[in-house]
């Protein structure tokens, strides 16, 4: 019997009607310099060419590290994220949305960061934004210099910014041990699903930030930031309230007014950005 090598990193890709970009996303995992990974793809009952594209890529790759799960019915995105994560096995996890792309050394760099900084619940990086055609646009760095950051301080800093300064899932790798303490993604949070989860992870540890991007975040007209524009502000404020209720941060009424105002302004800027550059 062949020897089964347990993975150090699980990359999970929840996919729904993702045929346009999925091939580039999956190929960016297959070409990683770090090799002890597993790739779990969860097709959320797609109605486009996604299922056939996945089958074709599986045949071409012929790689035992790749597994596919298929939902019988389409579920909300946060629920599909949880299904994907629940199917993983490794001690370190990365959720990769089906339109984003990893740098070839992304897994290797973030694995090393977490090994060298055991006090960090997760690693993140600056973000390279690309448009629908894959053209690089610019780098965003909401945190700053490379290094370790205290979790509790970062919770307040992120909330008071009114936006996700930590990064989208493509830029984050977290520990299963931290996930076992804080649970899975919150299905009540429709848009700020990722940042709400990062804040919970920060309640049990710090983060290590890399000022050099580990991935490409794609902006386009069909992205969640555009589809869910109407709920972005309330979703972010709800995320802030959840942290207060958990006792991980203290916010005054004035703080909440600041958070709401900043979130509204940054949502408007985001919509313009996506529509003009995506």
Description:
There is one protein chain. The chain has one domain: Spore Coat Polysaccharide Biosynthesis Protein SpsA, Chain A (Alpha-Beta Complex), CATH 3.90.550.10. It is built from 10 helices and 12 strands. The chain has 278 residues and is of the alpha/beta class. The strands form 2 sheets. An 8-stranded mixed beta sheet has the order 3-2-1-4-10-6-11-9, sandwiched between helices. The chain has a 4-stranded mixed beta sheet with strand order 5-12-7-8. The chain is 41% helix and 20% strand. The radius of gyration is 18 Å and the shape is globular. The model has no long low-confidence stretch (mean pLDDT 93).
- Give me the CATH fold name: Spore Coat Polysaccharide Biosynthesis Protein SpsA, Chain A
Strand count, sense and barrel status of the largest sheet are:
8 strands, mixed
Low-confidence stretches: none
Into which percent range does the helicity of residues fall?
Answer: 40-55%
Approximate strand percentage: 15-25%
Helix and strand content put the structural class at alpha/beta
State mean pLDDT (0 to 100 scale).
93
**Strand-and-helix sequence, N→C?**
EHEHEHEEHEEEEHEHHEEHHH
Q: What gross morphology would you assign?
A: globular
Using the 3D structure, state the CATH architecture: Alpha-Beta Complex
The spatial strand order of the largest sheet comes to 3-2-1-4-10-6-11-9
Radius of gyration, taken over Cα atoms and rounded to an integer in Å = 18 Å
- Overall tally of structural domains: 1
> Please, how many helices?
10
What separation lies between the terminal Cα atoms? 49 Å
Question: What is the C-level CATH assignment?
Answer: Alpha Beta
Write down how many β-strands occur, each being a DSSP E stretch of 2 or more residues: 12
By CATH, the superfamily comes out as Spore Coat Polysaccharide Biosynthesis Protein SpsA, Chain A
């Amino acid at each position: 019997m062949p020897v089964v090598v347990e993975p150090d990193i699980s990359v999970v890709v929840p996919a729904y009607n993702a045929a346009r970009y999925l091939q580039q996303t999956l190929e960016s995992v297959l070409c990683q310099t770090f090799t002890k990974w597993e790739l779990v793809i969860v097709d959320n009952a797609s109605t486009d060419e996604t299922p056939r594209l996945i089958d074709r890529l599986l045949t071409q790759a012929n790689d035992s590290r790749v597994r596919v799960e298929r939902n019988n019915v389409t579920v909300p995105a946060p629920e599909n994220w949880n299904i994907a994560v629940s199917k993983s096995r490794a001690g370190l996890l990365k959720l990769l949305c089906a339109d984003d792309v990893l740098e070839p050394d992304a897994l290797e760099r973030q694995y090393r960061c977490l090994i060298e900084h055991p006090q960090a619940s997760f690693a993140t990086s600056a973000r390279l934004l690309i448009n629908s055609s894959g053209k690089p646009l610019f780098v965003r760095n909401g945190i700053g210099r490379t290094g370790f950051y205290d979790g509790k301080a970062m919770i307040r800093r992120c909330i008071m910014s009114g936006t996700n300064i930590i990064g989208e899932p493509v830029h984050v790798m977290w520990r299963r041990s931290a996930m076992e303490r804080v649970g899975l993604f919150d299905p009540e949070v429709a848009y700020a699903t990722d940042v709400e989860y990062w804040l919970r992870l920060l309640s049990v540890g710090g983060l290590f930030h890399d000022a050099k991007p580990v991935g490409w975040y794609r902006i386009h007209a069909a992205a969640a930031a555009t589809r869910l524009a109407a709920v972005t502000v309330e979703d972010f404020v709800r995320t802030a309230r959840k942290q207060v209720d958990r006792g991980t941060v203290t916010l005054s009424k004035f703080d909440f007014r600041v958070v709401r105002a900043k979130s509204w302004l940054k949502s408007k800027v985001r919509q313009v950005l996506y529509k003009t550059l995506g």
